[in-house]
């Protein structure tokens, strides 16, 4: 729902009033995240001017807090500052609603995952291929790589094993952490099962 400077949610109201013949009140209020009874109550009684004036004053304070902290504060910390510095007791839902409706939500800092763990002191394997990536037949030459994928809950690591003869994926594994045992060994084990290195 979009709020204008005076605090009135005119966009939602105009939309609902203009489209009453096209959609039901239930469908339109769901679009704005409101309940049908709130819409009927507003149509019958209007919105309390005292409540709107309070929201406008709270919004000015919240906007000041958000700008002062460079939009790093979410509604819980904004509520604490409203209470401690301004003496305003505001519910969590009300603070979150005012912040959401006016685009003042906290910016999330993206955490970059570590791609490698070089602190283990593991030895370096010999380069057996010598950059010769061609293969006469299927089986004896494999290559693998690990890549990270952003998913809803964070990051997943995908290891893929290729047969260099035809570049076919013959093994793969997923893990939620960068771990050679969990990904590389499992992927290479699957590759050996799917296509033995030295067919009989």
Task: Write the SSE topology.
Blueprint: H1 10-18, H2 25-31, H3 36-45, H4 49-68, H5 75-86, H6 92-101, E1 142-151, E2 154-163, E3 168-175, H7 181-194
Q: For the largest beta sheet, what order do the strands appear in spatially?
A: 1-2-3
Radius of gyration: 29 Å
Shape by Cα distribution = elongated
Helix content: 40-55%
What count of structural domains? 2
- Average pLDDT confidence is 76
Q: Unreliable segments (pLDDT under 50, ≥5 consecutive)? A: 1-8
Query: What is the percentage of strand-forming residues?
Result: 5-15%
What is the count of β-strands? 3
Structural class of the secondary elements? alpha+beta
Largest sheet: 3 strands, antiparallel
Write down the secondary-structure element order: HHHHHHEEEH
Report the span from N to C terminus: 69 Å
Treating each run of at least 4 consecutive H or I residues as one helix, how many helices?
7
Structure, described:
With 200 residues, the protein is an alpha+beta fold. It folds into 2 domains: 10-101, no CATH class; 132-194. 41% of the residues lie in helices and 14% in strands. The protein has 7 helices and 3 strands; from the N terminus they run H-H-H-H-H-H-E-E-E-H. It has helices at residues 10-18, 25-31, 36-45, 49-68, 75-86, 92-101, 181-194; strands spanning 142-151, 154-163, 168-175. Strand 1 and strand 2 form a beta hairpin. The termini are far apart. The model is unreliable at 1-8 (pLDDT under 50).
Summarize the model shown.
It is built from seven helices and three strands. It has helices at residues 10-18, 25-31, 36-45, 49-68, 75-86, 92-101, 181-194, and strands at 142-151, 154-163, 168-175.
């Amino acid at each position: 729902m979009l709020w204008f400077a005076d605090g009135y949610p005119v966009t939602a109201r105009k939309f609902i009033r203009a489209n009453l013949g096209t959609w039901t009140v239930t469908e339109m209020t769901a679009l704005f995240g409101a309940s049908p009874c709130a819409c009927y109550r507003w149509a019958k009684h209007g919105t309390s001017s005292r409540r709107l004036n309070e929201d406008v004053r709270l919004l000015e304070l919240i906007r000041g807090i958000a700008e002062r902290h460079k939009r790093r504060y979410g509604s819980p910390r904004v509520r604490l500052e409203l209470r401690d510095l301004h003496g305003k007791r505001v519910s969590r839902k009300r603070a979150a609603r005012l912040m959401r409706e006016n685009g003042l939500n906290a910016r999330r800092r993206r955490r970059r995952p570590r791609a490698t763990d070089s602190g283990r002191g593991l030895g370096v394997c010999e380069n057996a291929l010598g950059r010769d990536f061609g293969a006469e037949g299927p089986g004896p030459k494999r290559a693998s790589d690990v890549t990270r994928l952003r998913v809803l809950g964070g990051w997943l690591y995908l290891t893929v094993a290729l047969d260099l003869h035809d570049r076919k994926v013959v093994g793969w594994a997923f893990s939620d952490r960068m771990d050679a045992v969990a990904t590389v060994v499992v992927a290479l084990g699957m590759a050996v099962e799917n296509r033995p290195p030295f067919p009989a």
